[in-house]
Amino acid sequence: MSDEDFMRQAIQLATTQMLADQGGPFGALIVHESRVISEGWNQVTSSNDPTAHAEIVAIRGAAEALGSYALADCDLFTSCEPCPMCLGAAYWAGVRRIVFAASRQDAAKGGFSDEFLYQELPKAIEDRQIPTIQLLGTEGWAPFAAWLAKEDRIQY
Amino acid sequence: MSDEDFMRQAIQLATTQMLADQGGPFGALIVHESRVISEGWNQVTSSNDPTAHAEIVAIRGAAEALGSYALADCDLFTSCEPCPMCLGAAYWAGVRRIVFAASRQDAAKGGFSDEFLYQELPKAIEDRQIPTIQLLGTEGWAPFAAWLAKEDRIQY
Known about the structure:
Chain A has helices spanning 3-19, 44-47, 54-66, 84-93, 104-109, 114-120, 142-148; strands at residues 27-32, 35-41, 74-80, 97-102, 132-134. By secondary structure, chain A is α+β, with helices and mostly antiparallel strands. In chain A, strands 2-1-3-4 form a four-stranded mixed β-sheet. The first copy, chain A, is globular and about 50 Å long. Chains A and B meet through α1, α2, α3, α4 and β4 of A and α1, α2, α3, α4 and β4 of B.
């Protein structure tokens, strides 16, 4: 299957699952060695999980399928440009490539906050819409100190 | 309990669960009406889930506890400044307030990529480390067109 085939499958998934009242109109696939190893679609409203975006669901499924938190040699196909949450997940998973169809501006036209989040995240903490503060910063180092002292730690 | 009490609980969770080989040194709580309704800790390496950061786990748990994808009147306490994935999740969940202890620079000193991701996400797509391309952008609008035509859609 070609990149276009995988993408059409992701787009179809977005429409089909949304029409089945699963959530917003988003679909995603993880492809490993030219084979789809997981599918994801938005399930925020049906599963009451604000993190259940198509890409997150697909990434979690692929990690389970491969038995690894590192999705080496995996490509993420998604019907819409990943939001910052999902882009962050793709980086943590270490996918090889990200291929998307609709843009964050299309998502905005559909009523979703992706573009807003891209504006919001790089801002200084004190300028963000959700009030955010640092507290006990010095005590917050303790878990890292214990981590660095742990000789058998699994760095990722 | 005071903000400091909640934060010390999150920090303690980070150390305890990391020492129990759950994953990286991160802990988080969701507080609703002055009560802890969920706890989360990093489980990336123990559960083979690259999205299982402390905040994501805590947010999913709180949404389950409240039976809602919208965490209104909920505060997120986390032992370390949320990475872009987790900050995005906090915004999608609509938490009221984010309180963190260690900074993204502390996380970098501990060997984690949070600061790198904050640098990476605002970049133009073509300048990012993971190759990212748009494909079939016009066809990608179809799920949104179907969404906007769906009269009983649940916008979030």
